[in-house]
Amino acid sequence: MKIYTRSGDQGETGLFGGGRVPKAHIRVEAYGTVDELNAFLGLAVAQVEDGEVKERLGAIQRDLFSLGTSLATPGSEDGSARPSTPPVPRGRIQEMEDWIDAATEETPALRNFILPGGTPGASGLHLARTVCRRAERAVVRLDRGEGTEAGVLAYLNRLSDLLFALARLENHRAGVEDVVWKKEEG
Fold first, then answer.
1. For 4-15, what is each residue's pLDDT tens digit?
2. Residue 52: what pLDDT?
3. Top-level CATH class of 20-73+88-180?
4. Domain boundaries of the chain, sorted by first residue
5. Confidence (pTM)
6. What does the mean pLDDT of the chain come to?
């Protein structure tokens, strides 16, 4: 199988289940940004030192493929069945909340805004968090215009919170303090 098809040379791409849209279509932006998020998580996994955090991120990466597949599959306009896609892992939302709670209990109380950074792993998680928020904004636009599968928005919203909590946990377990943001005087 060849990697290139030449079918997108005119600025369009095929969707799962059929149909073509411009590569600038909000659906392509939504699943493309989720793909970008997955790539940034891969980078974070390569930098994270904590084994438990790595394991959780691996599960999230697999979930993001399911989300991307869902986002790449529009509902049919003619009433025909939508192709089968892996389910959005809605049960993971509660699991992420549990992980957030456990990380929050282990890390010092958050009393100020903090600057992204610290260890390479924590920095990678902060970067992934910002891409997650961008993916969420793209999915909101898609959802408002065409609709999305139930659970996608909640998943991304919780994931950005989890990435923040895991970045703090990665720093804490490495003995690196969060850098508190201080308003510049002047």
1. 888 777 888 777
2. 94
3. mainly alpha
4. 20-73+88-180
5. 0.90
6. 91
